[in-house]
Amino acid sequence: MTFRWIIDARNDLTWYIGSALMGYLYAGLVLLAVAVLPSPLEDAFGVLRLGGLEIPLTLNLLVYTTWAFLLDAPHLFSTMARTFFDPEERQMRRRALWLSWGWFLVGPVAVLLPFGAVVFLVLFRLWAYYHVVRQHWGFFVLYKRKNGDMEPRAYRVDQWYFNLALYLPLLLFVTGPVYAQTPGMPPLGLEGLAATKVVYVAAWAVLVGSTVAYVGYQIWLRRQGQELNGPKLLFLLSVVPLHLLAVSTPWTAALLVPIITVGHNLQYHRIVWMYGQGKYVKSNKAPLARLIFSRFWVYAAMGLLFTLALYRGPWIEWLQSAVGMNLDRSFLAGIGMMAGLTDPSALSVGQQIFATFLLGWAMQHYYLDAKIWRVSQDRGVAEQLRVN
Questions:
Q1: Taken in order 111, 114, 117, 119, is the CA torsion positive or negative?
Q2: I need a labelling partner for 382 at 20 to 30 A (CA). Which of 56, 127, 180, 253 fits?
Q3: Mean pLDDT across 146-170
Q4: Cα 64 from Cα 45, distance rounded (Å)
Q5: What is the pTM for the complete model shown?
């Protein structure tokens, strides 16, 4: 079995493969809350006292607030640091960078259409899920490249199994009994339909059958004398069960976005840091980007400042006084809508518009991310990720 890493064993097992452990930790907290708290999404495990402050340790704080403020919003800043703060990227991707700002208008426009907020939110969550899966596929392919695992037939087998293993859990969730019991999910009208039950059973059959077949294929390769790709298989073992776990109960499904996204956030921070160290710190290019990537604490502080600027910046105070709206509540509603905890129909039109506008940061990230990490097409990216 070969074990060639993107960085090295310690870093890869911590940031790229082991990052999924944070998702399992979040899922564990959710299941613990279900076991010990009467109202899992509202009650607190206890109260943390810091001086005169009393902080209730609820799932909202321990899972989706820590995820949103400490990891997810800062990882949106990472994309900006590696695009808008890089003169070379601004020149090369001028059109894409300008078009990316248009995503901030999609949600507010959708809210004004009949059923627009619900449709927008469903499509947004699907795009978020797709974005996470595509990043996982990117790491999976990097491990294939690093370990010389690019034989065409094996590539097709990997591609088929990878996509089935990560997308079928979503189909199982939508067609299975858990969906209707999950807080914040809009009714789809699929419950009780014979076709829904057939799809649900078929999805389970395909998932189990493809997993057995994939394991069998690895055994066959080994018996043929071929070395198996250790990091690739460890990566699969880390993410596939997590996606199944996330949709296995109504409570984990309610927090599906942070559960499956937190590992993606950690992976992204590490690979952007690696890219920034290689491209900016070791050269005289892009002085602002070089400053951001000069020290990890600087990078982390800038990401947190970006998050706080969204939440507490002067523009928030100006908007709050201009529109007479509690924007703190609307900001949290935006996070809640993204995480699946807030039903958009429970918000005013103004809150829906502001919340969906804030989700534009995520959509801008999804859009740009699909363009800036094409290893096979961008020699500079391949060089910085050490897959030449």
A1: negative
A2: 127
A3: 95
A4: 15
A5: 0.87
